Amino acid sequence: MKTITSRDNPLYKELKHLATSSQARRKAGRTLLDGVHLSQAWLDMRGAPLQCIVSESALANPEVAGIVMRCENQHAHVTALPDALYNAVSQVEHGVGLMFLIETPASELPASLTVNAVLLDNVQDPGNVGSILRSAAAAGITQVFCSSGTAFCWSPKVLRAAMGAHFVVEIYENVDLASLIAPSKIAVIATSGYATQRVYDADLRQPVAWVFGHEGQGVADDLLSMATQQVVIPHLGQVESLNVAACAAVCFFEQVRQIQA
Amino acid sequence: MKTITSRDNPLYKELKHLATSSQARRKAGRTLLDGVHLSQAWLDMRGAPLQCIVSESALANPEVAGIVMRCENQHAHVTALPDALYNAVSQVEHGVGLMFLIETPASELPASLTVNAVLLDNVQDPGNVGSILRSAAAAGITQVFCSSGTAFCWSPKVLRAAMGAHFVVEIYENVDLASLIAPSKIAVIATSGYATQRVYDADLRQPVAWVFGHEGQGVADDLLSMATQQVVIPHLGQVESLNVAACAAVCFFEQVRQIQA
């Protein structure tokens, strides 16, 4: 374990940069995972981080000490920071004092849609994107494609909301969704409040690419018109629509129900 | 329409107090609705506000002007603020410059559970509580009971996430959930990752009181043991759990599916 005591240390400067700038994270292809849960999930699913960063006082926490030991056993770099330096980097209030520096996983875009997938068209809110990733992972969906207008998946807020789902699904960002839908071999199903077919009546026992859209405007018209089917979640109340992450969960688990039926 | 130009005006002081303090909102039994959507929903569902507050520049916005006119037609008080004063009160960045001051609706606690209801035990995150209210309203559920540890429903974040659902469901806060469950005449169903019965296999064609719990710990053990049934949402992936708002949406719309089947 190394200790950094100077704010001029290059690694410290990199951490500070990544912690505060979404652009820096995108450009470097690196991000920070904050806290025990995400770090543990990374170790379980993806192995060693580039760096395990701990505050000096966090070393007394048995959970943190356990993760540090796992990192050292895998010959990962572990760096301790005095609490004042650590706190100046952490974006989490009352955090546990542990973060991983990782390389953002990047996969080559598949040639076509062949397995259960989610396509996010301009979904703005990081909490919604994170919740959708989490629900998708729980429903066994393994591919998520995001348009350039969708919230950056490797931001701290999305990571926190997804609770480790990032590490079990393949995430593709800045994707031209129309080019992906056009040659699709599987059903592409978009949700729309104006559709007449209920999601319960669609046959979901085959692979499906689900399309969800902007919180206010929904799925863009050009993508809607390219979809194989449009479905609606029927409402019994006076409220006009569902939150997009709630809508996605209903669709994914209706598919799980049909698969298990 | 009146205009306030002094920060010492009593109404202005009240607005500032309500805008910045959750405790003040609880104590006064009043809250602020920010923006066109919530204000419109209030007018549609509940009628005139105590006060309609607009920034002077917002009066040029046709949507805002339309709402001001509806308020005046209903003899509600409309107060204009110079932009500088308005912005010092608004908690929303780049807001439209419109808010309603309202009396927080309060209903007497029903003697027992008789219709579809949601019970929230220590749900912490305002976004989750808002999303659950919104899904409940869309699924036709009309009663929501919150334990004292659950996020305050009339806070700006919960209001924003629920998109007007507050005005079509009855919300009861600081409720002793155990006292409500014990004499229940209807099925009380709690979700738990350890349950063996799938939500799809529960008979949901009768009224149900759904119980959802804390984001980390789930439903408290004493409430779990009092529930008529415990159900699980089956997972096909490697992720341990769903976000509580996603979980609620799946349950509510499985009930809608069964009712419509």
Automatic annotation (TrEMBL), chains A, B:
Q: Which SUPFAM superfamilies match?
A: alpha/beta knot, L30e-like
Gene Ontology biological-process annotations: methylation; RNA processing
Respond yes or no to whether keyword Methyltransferase is given for this record. Answer: yes
Q: Which organism is it from?
A: Massilia polaris
What name appears for this protein in its UniProt entry?
A: RNA methyltransferase
Q: What GO terms are given for molecular function?
A: RNA binding; RNA methyltransferase activity
User: Does the record bear Methyltransferase in its keywords?
Assistant: yes
Q: Where is the tRNA/rRNA methyltransferase SpoU type domain?
A: 118-252
Q: Which UniProt keywords apply?
A: Methyltransferase, Transferase
